[in-house]
Amino acid sequence: MVNILAERLLKAKPFDKNLYRKGGSKLYIETHGCQMNVADSEVVISILNKAGFGVIEDYKSADLILINTCSIRDNAEQRIFNRLNEFKHLKKRNKFLLIGIIGCMAERLKSKLVEREKLVDLVIGPDAYRSLPKLVQQAESGQKAINVLLSREETYAEISPVRINKNGVSAFVSIMRGCDNMCSYCVVPFTRGRERSRDPQTILREVQELIDAGYKEVTLLGQNVDKYNWQNGMVSFANLLEMTAKLDPNLRVRFSTSYPQDMTDEVLHVIAKYENICKYIHLPVQSGSSAVLKRMKRGYTREWYMNRIRAIRTIVPDCAISSDFIAGFCAETEAEHKETLSIMDWVGFDYSYMFKYSERPDTYAAKRMPDDVPEEIKSRRLKEIIDLQNTLSLRSNQKDVGKIFKVLVEGKSKKSEDRLFGRNSQNKVIVFDKKDSKIGDYIMVKVNECSSATLLGEIVEI
Ligand code: SAM
Ligand code: SF4
């Protein structure tokens, strides 16, 4: 699940020539997968900076290559194996080069990774990053270095991440780790361990540091942010959101991911109360069929989900809503698939991330339910979901034509030097002629045209 912002962050790689370790240790880090991985890579860079590593953009001159990996679907893992193949020739050229696999694939495959891929020197799971400097030393001495211990406490709470995104405008802030939901198809509880919340003081301190450094937007991250819970209910997600919003009215606050079973009206009232909490909720439904949701062990029904949407529409009327969908889950019938299409139409999602079901080893579904929807049917159903989402996104964007939005300027348009892009509170990307505006400004933009993916507008004075 990589959204537009994360895609941009993944492409940006930092370079700081002042941070090389004596002897010239250069780190190249590549991040695959979700926003959580981007946030983790920033923690890893911080830990390795302290051990004297500087980050470089060009992997060809690196001393240490780390690939922060994703296991969510089989194709994500295949991409990493292909990437490793591309690094093979470097190892032949430089026998001191170290290659490490970190993150979810490291956790899932453990020592099998070094057995399968001889060029891998380090395998480090998401809760073991503090041991990186020691493990790098071990690998430098010629031994394979592996640490995939999961923890019930680790949140890297006091580590100040070194930001990958150098635009200095938006940053991810991890508020919790792991997941206890155990959806039947999902590998995350196995690769990221038990759910735990980070000390709110350290979260607020990190956000304040970002504000002081000129950042204008933070995204609070967790697999299920609604389960954020510090010391038996002393601080809930609603409390944390409110405290973050109050730090600075000029700071935009986003969050991801919300969970239909756990999202409370209290959270919605906090979103409605603060102008700087963005009016956008990513609330993955996965399927519109209660029977499929039961097989997925999602813990809610179609009706429950629809009621949560009604609550959003009532309490935060101008809120955009996006979702995730899995096409062709075990035993999904044509009628069940049609229920997914009908809930999409009923909600009118502004945006969605859509996937074919991919069986993941060791999950409940892999052990108990055959992956029995034929590939061509999965593909056709996914295409129907994507086609419908494109129609819904276009319809949603067309409603914005003629409206004026407050936009945070985030970067240059890819297509034209004279244009910039930013997002409105609803997370929609708007491209406009730059005039006197610059990255980091808040400006008012009137939307003149749209496609299903983007709004085009002009800066207006208010
Ligand atoms: N925690 C979030 C939630 O529950 O909505 C999302 C976490 S997951 C990293 C992102 C998305 O990947 C999920 O919402 C789901 O749609 C998709 N996903 C997870 N496991 C999958 C699988 N085995 N096959 C296909 N898609 C999968
Ligand atoms: Fe996976 Fe479900 Fe947890 Fe999301 S909530 S990470 S889909 S187990």
What does this protein structure show overall?
The model is unreliable at 1-23 (pLDDT under 50). This protein has 15 helices and 21 strands. The chain has helices at 4-11, 35-50, 74-93, 104-109, 112-116, 132-140, 188-192, 200-212, 237-247, 265-273, 290-295, 302-315, 334-347, 364-368, 375-400, and strands at residues 26-31, 54-55, 64-69, 98-103, 122-124, 145-147, 170-174, 176-177, 196-197, 217-221, 229-230, 235-236, 252-256, 280-282, 320-327, 351-356, 404-412, 419-423, 429-433, 442-450, 455-459. A hairpin with a 5-residue loop joins strand 18 (419-423) and strand 19. The chain has a six-stranded parallel beta sheet, sandwiched between helices. The chain has 462 residues and is an alpha/beta fold. The relative contact order is 0.08. Helix 8 runs parallel beside helix 9. Bound molecules: S-adenosylmethionine (SAM) and iron/sulfur cluster. Iron/sulfur cluster is lined by residues 179, 181-183, 186, 188-189, 223-224, 259.
